[in-house]
Design goal:
The complex is a heterodimer of chains A (about 500) and B (about 1050).
Chain A lengths: L1 H31 L6 E2 L7 H20 L3 H6 L12 H4 L12 H4 L3 H19 L9 H24 L23 H18 L4 H4 L7 H14 L3 H12 L15 H4 L6 E5 L9 E2 L9 H5 L17 E2 H7 L7 H6 E2 L9 E4 L5 E5 L4 E5 L3 E5 H14 L3 H14 L9 H16 L5 H12 L3 H6 L6 H5 L9 H6 L14
Helix pairs in contact in A: 2-6, 2-7, 6-7, 7-8, 7-10, 8-10, 10-11, 10-16, 11-16, 16-17, 16-18, 17-18
Chain B lengths: L1 H8 L1 H19 L2 E9 L2 E2 L4 E4 L6 E3 L5 E6 L4 E5 L6 E4 L8 E2 L10 E3 L4 E3 L7 E5 H4 L7 H4 L7 E4 L10 E4 L22 E4 L2 E3 L1 H5 L17 E7 L2 H4 L10 E6 L5 E14 L11 H14 L2 H6 L3 H4 L12 H5 L3 E13 L3 E13 L5 E15 L4 E16 L25 H8 L1 H4 L1 E19 L3 E20 L10 E24 L3 E24 L17 E23 L3 E12 L8 E12 L4 H4 L4 E15 L11 E4 L18 E2 L2 E2 L1 E3 L12 E14 L4 E20 L8 E20 L8 E18 L1 H4 L2 E3 L2 E3 L7 E5 L1 E4 L17 E2 L2 E2 L5 E3 L7 E2 L8 E4 L6 E11 L2 E11 L2 E3 L1 H11 L4 H6 L40 E3 L2 E13 L5 H5 L4 E15 L25 E9 L1
Parallel strand pairs in B: 1-8, 14-17, 43-46
Antiparallel strand pairs in B: 1-2, 1-5, 3-4, 3-6, 6-7, 9-10, 11-16, 12-13, 14-15, 16-17, 18-19, 18-54, 19-20, 20-21, 21-22, 22-23, 23-24, 24-25, 25-26, 26-27, 27-28, 28-29, 29-30, 30-35, 31-34, 32-33, 35-36, 36-37, 37-38, 38-48, 39-40, 40-41, 41-47, 42-45, 43-44, 48-49, 49-52, 50-51, 52-53, 53-54
The chains are: A mainly alpha (about 500), B mainly beta (about 1050).
Chain lengths: ~500, ~1050
């Protein structure tokens, strides 16, 4: 028994020592608690794959920004007056110039999503610059940087068109300490930043990447298109012509779709007319579902009717276009192929007067047997060649070169199978804008066209002439064409003021 | 090597040999042979352990006739011990016959409280501790222990907001401190601060289990309540500080039963019961429904409305589509059943003690396809190798399966919710009926938890009064949630299944050095230092798929890769702690305690890894003073006071301190996390990686802390006929972690910060009485406890701005979770009740039209003669208080000879609750002022309410006008606030114990004890609340008719011991 006891004692002492030593060693490491189910700043940015993922992430955030409450459509199309709704006053108050859009405001008044794209781009810019060139295949490093500059520029461009002055954030935020209160920077400075970033992107990117990236990631073409738009927004039309031409002349890469196949740009990202689109392919598991709530639904569920595509939520589209208005817009001695290509004519009674929209009608069904669970998968077009050609026409008109402007615009007319435009000066300006409506309706451009041209020409009447509402002088002076900023933003930062015209109105 | 040899030979056998050897050695030295008989008030007492004090080797136990025989020397002291009886010591002093009468112990409480670090001497403790023993909780029909603690302990507030078998209730020690970290995390079912549970020395808290758990089953349900020997609640910081970083909300110590020295005992126990079908939410059915709806339409409608606007559904009573009387609730409610079986074997010698118990608990719920079934095993073995070396082990294993009805979560058990039921008049074809009820047969909805926990502690005593111990504990739990629903039940007509698995693993190593010493007879010291390391690992796998080819396949199988989604997850946690504690008392009169603990947690960044938690406490055992002793009637009197600090880290996740990037997040509206949608993980086919923009890391985040003061007095008077305990406390919790907004242009919306504070202060009373003298055959022992608590928000972020989370409001200086909404002062019964602008004479308006008779009398808070929630016209405000002011329980124990009766009544006073069921039901038919809505929705029996019908009425509820459309029936109004007090006859227990001395057959069958008992659980509730059950409200005091009822259970049981 004694022997046993002695053994115990040795055993206990040894065991204890072992445990003490063992636990002290393992503690130190375990207390650091390395995160294993996600990555983070210190462990990321080690390979080209990491960067590719982060850039894809930024595109994903950009897609989210556009789709939140379908804000690109609520901003760019609803106020232009070509879409109506029967579903209560809440749905229509946007096309009469009242931008309070209750229920759509999360996307339309809030800039958080957009600043996420900017933060993700800032992260790429800061970290990729720091990474060794050896980690990348030839040219890849420049390309990723170019994409990040492009996305940052594009996001600021969207935001400044919507809200004007903005806080300018050009560095990534990585801890709470860095979140300092800053105020808004003037819109002109923001636009300069957009142009400078887009120029950097243009110099870093190549035209060829358009093909390699299937036109759904930035290429030199996308950067130049952005420059064309940004310079037009800044009333620098001579530059617009130069930038637009650099794309238009790149005919090996960018060509107009043949007549009657324009809709192809929504279905196929690689269509020759596309410069830069955002995709949502069902085959890649990126399509979006309708989940019983229209305000967060994809634009397809808002505009494509169940007559066009079975199991869509609305018989004539939550937003539809009045037949009379569309027929007037597309009136020509010849038949405009776009009228049939973009709009669906119902055969059913009262719906005959309400045209549903076809641009977003690429629908995949999860259950192909019953056509249930529809998924929207149309591309969102950011830039396509027709847009560039018409923008060039607008610029030439503004520069007094009406003959060249007509040549340009009539390329689009010819493609639609309609007779050439005529006219000059102010009349032509309006006609080109109308041509942009006919061509680009529903692509998030039309309202910004109105703002751009009215501001550049200091002519508020363009609103009453081309939309359903008029812009009074006071509202125009107070930049009432801008959208209001969410109250939550104002509440949390005393340095930020509401846009002048909206003060006290929301 | 040696150890292995030893065990291979069979430790038990060896121990026996050792015991006999020792015994024979001792016998040789002894001079006297002592015999005797041990009795209690009922006669001879078998199984009593008799041993010699200070000589652990010598022991025996009494036989069937209570007789014993043992050898002892002249100076020995004999000790007589038996579970449930007070121990007695008798000096031999040459006597050869010693007869003893043992008395049943008053409360059965152990003299020591086992904390896992050191044992506290209950008499010398300077802390506020509430305790109960097995007697109070055994054989009550509930799956988990927390439910059973209601009304039994002062300072412990248990509210059962759900009667669903196996789900967690709320158990709050000394007032709620929880504020959800963010408004999106606000969950009415999870609004309580949880104490730390310590089961046999192993700490486990709600937050560590909940993080990954798949099933939502209460982790305490893994423990069979019948295996529990005692529960001690450490309420103040002085003892809770032993647990440092997690003890801010109190500590619940649970100790399971262990073997005692004595011959082997086998016991078998079972109870069987029925669960009554619950009370239905008041609903009119068939003709009664039609009559009431028509009455409302005719009463309120004008001529045109009555001519044009009566729904066909109500007028066409002959139409078979509209003349039914469906009682939907009846489809789902059923009578349940409860079965429980326990067997155990226990015993011990001076070398080994053991208790091994196994149990089966099976409850069929009162809602179809709900229930809980658990198999459990508990094995506690102690081995005493020598006087110096001891090994204590325990092992628990259990597996439980919970059926949860229709959905996930605590609610959603019904396919047709009792608060949004359609009209009973609508036809319910056999097909419809089966589509509502049959899913319960076709769907798979299993929640299975398996828990294993084991620990072993090796104690080595050395020198004079030193003991070193090292303890290892392992916890291993898995949770599995499997769900499958056939194609016909899903909107997209594709069969769907998911399978989720989580695994939780933890180990704790504790090294402890203890020193117990009495110096110079009067200076008693008990000190310890300890080091502890804890490591946890949570892992999970989530898998789901749609488009399963055949409904018979109830797993994720045969799914195309595009429709398959799944991922796995992992997080770890580690904590290193150092602990020092010391107790000193002078002559067992003046008591001093100090505890200091330091914890380093992996949840915090390096700036704030370490937290320090000190406490000091003092006590004066006045009853040890001679001048008190002289009084005679004071048996025990102790005054105590304490101060201490404890922490809480439950509101920060394991990896929240990292600014994590999320892989595979390219979510956007329509392609994000929602049912049946696979979220987009890529952009253009490339996996997207983005920072987690929900919150940015804050390097300065630290512990939430609570600082608590406590003073108390314990007394036992009149020979133990009355005992009382009174405590007063105030606990300030600071540094509550909240998400606060940061500027949007960073891309982030919020950051975590220590920003809020809550203070709880209160008074607690416990009284135990013994009305009749011990000699009386009839006994009546009442015990009453009640606790007052006031809680108050003391600090909020953004310069103490009010915080709004859904319908809950936090305001500095006010209690937690106040309601937010319109204040209603009854009804506009007469013209004088109308708001009128004195300057214009115009009658005030509302967002829903001009005010008129029969409308709720909304209070115009901003004085603009307009009722609205628009910006600038806001008339909503905070009101009410859902936190109870008084909670407690009253137990009466009666016994007459072998009969016993125990009645437990619990009560809650001083809180407001919202009759959300009524609001929702009225809202369904009346919200938009469309009689068609009224026709389609079910209706509650409104005749019990005094509602406005016509001018001249003095109504308390507004008009139930189907044409009004004034949006009057929104839920967030003080209109629906009702008194939330209740008194519940929680439990009635009647027992009869067969006396082995009286029944020969029991002796023949070697049955030591046999007890029959019957129990009624939830017998009756007294309340003023007009709904079903004032207890069944969520954390914010909202009554939900679609929640799980608290049913009445009737059981009958038998307990046998051999």
């Amino acid at each position: 028994m004694k022997i046993y006891r002695r053994k115990y004692k040795t055993l206990v002492v040894t065991l204890t020592l072992l445990i003490l030593i063992g636990s002290t060693f393992s503690c130190k490491k375990d207390l650091d608690n390395e995160i294993k189910n996600d990555t983070y700043g210190n462990t990321f940015w080690k390979s080209q794959g990491d960067v590719n993922g982060a850039v894809a992430g930024a595109y994903g955030l950009f897609r989210k920004s556009l789709n939140q409450n379908s804000c690109f459509f609520i901003w760019g199309d609803a106020p232009a007056g070509l879409f109506y709704s029967d579903e209560g006053t809440l749905a229509t108050d946007v096309n009469n110039g009242s931008f309070t859009v209750p229920y759509w405001n999360e996307g339309a008044h809030n800039w958080t999503n957009w600043y996420r794209v900017i933060d993700a781009s800032n992260l790429v810019i800061e970290n990729v610059n720091r990474m060794s060139d050896d980690l990348f295949t030839d040219g890849a490093k420049k390309a990723y940087l170019g994409e990040a500059y492009f996305l940052r520029a594009l996001s600021y461009f969207y935001m400044t068109r919507v809200w004007g002055d903005l806080p300018l954030q050009l560095t990534a935020t990585t801890s709470a300490d860095q979140a300092k209160l800053i105020g808004r920077t003037e819109a002109a400075t923001i636009l300069k930043q957009v142009i400078s970033d887009a120029q950097k992107a243009s110099s870093l990117l190549t035209f060829e990447s358009a093909t390699a990236n299937q036109r759904r990631r930035a290429s030199k073409g996308a950067a130049l298109a952005l420059l064309a738009h940004a310079s037009a927004w800044g009333n620098d039309y001579p530059k617009t012509v130069i930038y637009a031409d650099s794309i238009i002349n790149k005919q090996d890469l960018f060509r107009l779709q043949p007549t009657g196949t324009i809709r192809n740009v929504f279905k196929d990202a690689t269509a020759a007319e596309n410069i830069f689109v955002i995709t949502a392919k069902d085959a890649e598991n990126e399509s979006s579902a309708y989940t019983n709530y229209i305000f967060t639904a994809n634009v397809a569920f808002l505009t494509v009717s169940s007559e066009q595509k079975p199991n869509m939520p609305y018989v004539k589209g939550y937003y539809f276009s009045p037949k009379a208005r569309i027929d007037t817009l597309y009136k020509d001695i010849k038949e405009d192929t776009r009228r049939k290509e973009f709009f669906y004519d119902s055969n059913v009674g009262t719906n005959k007067e309400k045209l549903s929209f076809k641009k977003y009608s690429d629908i995949a069904y999860k259950n192909t047997a019953t056509n249930s669970d529809p998924r929207a998968e149309s591309n969102l077009i950011i830039f396509r060649l027709a847009d560039m050609i018409l923008l060039k026409a607008e610029a030439l008109n503004a520069l007094g070169k009406d003959a060249d402007a007509l040549n340009s615009a009539n390329l689009i007319r010819a493609r639609a199978g309609v007779s050439d435009l005529t006219g000059a000066g102010f009349v032509l300006r309006k006609k080109i804008l109308q041509e942009r409506q006919r061509e680009l309706i529903g692509e998030g451009q039309n309202y910004f066209d109105l703002v751009r041209v009215s501001v550049n020409t200091n002519d508020r009447n363009i609103f009453s002439q081309l939309s359903l509402w008029s812009m009074d002088q006071n509202r125009f002076n107070q930049k009432g064409y801008l959208w209001p900023i969410a109250n939550s933003i104002l509440n949390s930062n005393r340095l930020i003021n509401q846009n002048l015209w909206w003060m006290g109105k929301i | 090597m040696n150890l292995k040899l030893y065990t291979r030979r069979g430790g038990l056998k060896l121990a026996w040999v050792m015991a006999f050897t020792l015994l024979s050695v001792m016998t040789a030295l002894a001079q006297l042979k002592v015999t005797g008989k041990v009795t209690d008030k009922n006669g001879p007492l078998p199984g009593v352990t008799v041993h010699i004090k200070g000589k652990s080797g010598v022991a025996t136990s009494t036989n069937q006739n209570g007789e014993y025989q043992m050898s002892a020397s002249e100076n020995d002291i004999l000790m007589f011990r038996m579970l449930g009886y007070d121990s007695k010591e008798v000096a031999v002093k040459g006597k050869t016959r010693i007869d003893i009468k043992l008395t049943e112990s008053e409360n059965g409480l152990n003299e020591v409280i086992v904390t896992g670090y050191k044992n506290l001497d209950r008499k010398k403790s300077t802390s506020a501790i509430s305790s109960i023993t097995a007697k109070d909780i055994e054989n009550l029909p509930a799956a988990s222990l927390d439910v059973l603690l209601q009304g039994k302990l002062s300072g412990v507030n248990v509210q059962n907001f759900s009667g669903q078998p196996g789900v967690k209730t709320s158990l709050v020690v000394r007032g709620n401190t929880k504020i959800s970290a963010s408004s999106d995390g606000f969950d009415g079912d999870n609004l309580y601060s949880n104490p730390l549970y310590v089961i046999d020395g192993i700490p486990i808290s709600d937050d560590e289990v909940r993080a990954f758990d798949q099933t939502g089953t209460n982790f305490l349900a893994s423990l069979n309540p019948n295996d529990v020997e005692s529960v001690d609640i450490l309420k103040d910081a002085s003892s809770a500080a032993l647990y440092g970083s997690r003890a801010a909300n109190g500590v619940v110590l649970i100790k399971t039963k262990r073997g005692k020295i004595g011959s082997p005992r086998f016991s078998f126990n079972t109870y069987q019961g029925v669960v009554a079908k619950p009370q239905e939410v008041s609903t009119l059915i068939g003709a009664a429904e039609r009559r009431q709806k028509m009455d409302l339409i005719y009463n309120y409608g004008n001529d045109a409305q009555i001519r044009n606007n009566i729904p066909l559904m109500l007028t066409d009573s002959l139409n078979p589509a509209f003349n039914n009387n469906n009682d939907y609730q009846n489809l789902f409610y059923q009578a349940g059943a409860v079965h429980n079986y326990d067997i155990s074997a226990s015993g011990g010698t001076d070398a080994v003690n053991y208790r091994i118990g196994a149990g089966l608990y099976d409850e069929k719920g009162v809602v179809i396809n709900t229930g809980y079934k658990r198999y459990s095993l508990n094995s506690n073995v102690g081995i005493i190798f020598s006087k110096k070396l001891e090994l204590i082990t325990s092992l628990r294993a259990s597996t439980g399966k919970r059926l949860v009805g229709k959905g996930k979560g605590y609610r959603n058990v019904f396919a047709v919710s009792p608060i949004s039921m359609p009209s009973s008049l609508l036809a319910l074809s056999e097909k419809d009926r089966s589509s509502i009820v049959d899913p319960y047969t076709y769907q798979r909805n299993d929640n299975i938890n398996t828990d294993i926990s084991a620990n072993g502690e090796l104690r080595y005593s050395f020198l004079d009064g030193f003991r070193f111990s090292t303890r290892g504990a392992i916890n291993y739990s898995t949770g599995k949630f499997d769900y499958a629903s056939p194609a016909t039940l899903n909107k997209d007509e594709l069969a769907y299944a998911e399978s989720n698995y989580s695994q939780y693993r933890k180990y704790i190593l504790t090294n402890n050095l203890l020193w117990v010493k009495t110096i110079g007879q009067k200076h008693n010291v008990n000190a310890s230092i300890a080091q502890e390391f804890e490591s946890r690992r949570n892992e999970a796998i989530y898998l789901s798929g749609k488009g399963i080819p055949n409904d018979n396949i109830q797993v994720v199988k045969g799914v195309s890769s595009a429709n398959l989604k799944g991922y796995s997850d992992l997080s770890t946690y580690a904590k290193l702690s150092y602990l020092a504690s010391a107790h000193y008392d002078y002559d067992s009169k003046y008591l001093f305690d100090v505890v200091w603990r330091a914890d380093a947690s992996s949840r915090f960044g390096k700036n704030n890894k370490w937290g320090y938690f000190p406490s000091v406490s003092m006590g004066w055992l006045a009853s040890e003073e001679d001048f008190i002793k002289k009084l005679g009637w004071i048996n025990e009197l102790k005054l105590r006071g304490s101060w201490g600090r404890a922490g809480d880290e439950s509101s920060i996740g394991d990896v929240d301190r990292y600014n994590a990037y999320i892989s595979g997040n390219a979510y956007y509206p329509g392609a994000d996390t929602q049912e049946n949608v696979t979220p987009a993980t890529t952009y253009g086919g490339v996996t997207a990686i983005i920072p987690n923009y929900n919150g940015i890391t804050n390097d300065n985040i630290t512990w939430q802390q609570s600082e608590e003061w406590n003073i108390g007095v314990d007394a036992a008077l009149f020979g133990g006929r009355l005992s009382a305990s009174i405590d007063a406390y105030t606990r300030s919790t600071t540094g509550q972690m909240l998400r606060i907004a940061i500027p949007e242009y960073t891309g982030y919306t919020s950051t975590f910060t220590n920003a809020a504070g809550v203070r709880n202060s209160g008074l607690e009373f416990t009284f135990n009485g013994k009305i009749l003298p011990e000699t009386s055959a009839f006994q009546w022992n009442p015990s009453l406890n009640f606790s007052f608590n006031r809680n108050m928000v003391t600090e909020l972020p953004n310069g103490n701005r009010d915080l709004y989370y859904g319908n809950a409001v936090y305001v500095v200086g006010k209690p937690l979770n106040m309601y937010f909404g319109y204040l209603v002062d009854g009804v506009i019964n007469s013209e004088s009740d109308l708001i009128t602008n004195p300057y214009t004479g115009a009658v005030g308006g509302s967002k829903w039209g001009a005010l008129r008779l029969g409308y709720p009398k909304w209070r115009d808070l901003n004085g603009d003669y307009f009722i609205s929630d628009n910006t600038g016209q806001q008339d909503q405000s905070f009101f009410g208080d859902p936190n109870p002011f008084v909670t407690g329980g009253f137990t009466n124990y009666f016994s007459y000879k072998d009969f016993s009766l125990q009645v437990l009544t619990t009560f809650t006073f001083g809180r407001d609750i919202m009759n959300n069921t009524l609001a929702q039901k009225l809202q369904n038919g009346l919200f938009y002022g469309n009689p068609e809505d009224l026709a389609r929705a079910s209706i509650t029996d409104v005749s019990q309410y005094n509602y406005w019908r016509q001018p001249g009425d003095h109504a308390t509820l507004p008009a139930l006008n189907p044409f009004m459309g004034l949006y009057a029936w929104r839920t967030n109004q003080s209109l629906f606030m009702e008194p939330g007090w209740y008194i519940r006859i929680k439990n009635v227990n009647l027992g009869y114990r067969f006396n082995a001395q009286k029944f020969k057959w029991m002796q023949n069958a070697k049955i030591n004890s046999l007890r029959l008992y019957s129990n009624i659980d939830n017998l009756h509730i007294f309340q003023k609340f007009s709904g079903i059950d004032a207890e069944r409200v969520d954390g914010q005091g909202y009554d939900y008719g679609d929640g799980y009822p608290l049913p009445t259970k009737f059981t009958f049981g038998v307990q046998v011991e051999f």
